[in-house]
Amino acid sequence: MVGGAADHPSVLGDYRLEDQVGFYLRRAGQRHAVIFAGHMADGLTPTQWAALVKLAEHHSVSQNLLGRETAMDAATIKGVVDRLAKRGFVATSPDPDDGRRMRVSITSEGIAAVQRGLEPALLITAETLKPLDMAERRALLDLLRKLA
Amino acid sequence: MVGGAADHPSVLGDYRLEDQVGFYLRRAGQRHAVIFAGHMADGLTPTQWAALVKLAEHHSVSQNLLGRETAMDAATIKGVVDRLAKRGFVATSPDPDDGRRMRVSITSEGIAAVQRGLEPALLITAETLKPLDMAERRALLDLLRKLA
DNA sequence: TATTTTTTGTTTGTATACAAACAAAATTCC
DNA sequence: GGAATTTTGTTTGTATACAAACAAAAAATA
Q1: Which pLDDT score is estimated for B9?
Q2: How many CB atoms lie within 10 A of CB A94?
Q3: Maximum distance among all alpha carbons in chain A?
Q4: A110: left (phi > 0), else alpha (psi -120 to 50), else beta?
Q5: Using CA atoms, how far apart are residues A109 and A54, in angstroms rounded to an integer?
Q6: Which of A52, A67, A147 is nearest to A101 (CA)?
Q7: If you measure CA to CA, which chain B residue comes closest to A118?
Q8: What is the distance in angstroms measured between the alpha-carbon CA of A70 and the sugar C1' of C28?
Q9: B112 vs A148, B108, B116, CA distance in Å?
Q10: DSSP string of A59-88?
Q11: Considering chain A, what is the average pLDDT of its residues?
């Protein structure tokens, strides 16, 4: 007799939600999101923060490229940029050299927001990794990098 | 001179998006979601699948408890249950012993969907973990469990 | 040059995810 | 028994996330 425990329908066999990576990736992501929302300045979301950080490095990139560098597809990055623009952290202008492109650049207010968010950002990463010792943190980062 | 590279504004110091767990948790979750959507039967989403699997184990639980066991808050599990109910995979009824509770149970069609989804589900986990060897898979699961 | 393909951005629709505010029922505490 | 608290579920609003369909511009190719 295999996979037919008395009080469980045999449909699932040995399959358990608690054995699947996807389940834990979702849980870990949720926990991180809560920590992020609890610490970040100006109510910036993880994706908004990612976009601002990239813009602080590049100062000006096309909207889709910004999305690629921050792991967001075209539809998602558009919403993020729109919301950042509405708050004055980012400015958009048509690319004079390419009629398709929308150039996105960070404003001085956006830079100020990055400055306010930097300490919280470090805290967020530290708090997320708090359950792990240093070797485990390195291992997790390595494994996630391989996975993505 | 620290943190002031020539072509980078010094705002960020040593902070890099690519060093933060949150960024990789998001990326890994996205990759898993794509793999999931590419293989799962009946167009079931990860959360819908999680709910169905839990219901296949329990057969009948309250809506909020189902949410807790599948890592969804009250508002989220409601939407998931509503959509599963609309497709006939799940049935809801008021709990006779507790006027607040909504009892959720899996239907025979829901069980059939779980049967159809089981092989894809195993494939999804395998494909997600493909970049890692066996020791790394165990390590990742352990670390994510500690994290969540 | 003309056609095809690719890239870029937009819009719509569906599905998480959570905060906050709310109502109703059950439980706890005095 | 009665009041305060907790639990359960709903609704609204905001923000990802992606598929699919579309349009416009640029690049590649014949």
Answers
A1: 53
A2: 11
A3: 71
A4: alpha
A5: 15
A6: A67
A7: B12
A8: 50
A9: 33, 6, 6
A10: SEEEHHHHHHHTT--HHHHHHHHHHHHHTT
A11: 91
Neighbour count for residue A6 (Cβ, 10 Å): 4
Model confidence at B90: pLDDT above 80: yes
The pLDDT, as a whole number, for residue A3 is: 40
Buried b (16+ CB within 10 A) or exposed e, B6-33: eeeeebbeebebeebbbbbbbbbbbbbb
How many whole angstroms separate alpha carbon A85 and alpha carbon A113?
A: 13
Q: What is the pLDDT of residue A5?
A: 39
**pLDDT for res A9:** 53
Q: What type of residue sits at position A129?
A: L
Cα distances from A106 to residues A52, A53, A69, A74, A80, in angstroms, run 7, 9, 15, 19, 13
Give me the CA A10–C1' C17 separation in Å, rounded. 32
Tell the residue number behind the tokens 């597809």, with chain if given: A73
Q: Which residues touch strand D (CB under 7 A)?
A: A 45-48, 71-76, 79-80, 83, 97-100; B 26, 29-30, 33-34, 37, 62-65, 74-75, 78, 95, 98, 100-103
Which residues, in sequence order, are bridge partners of residue A61? A104
| Beta carbons of A81 and A92 less than 8 angstroms apart | yes
User: Which backbone phi and psi does A12 adopt, to 5 degrees?
Assistant: -85, -20
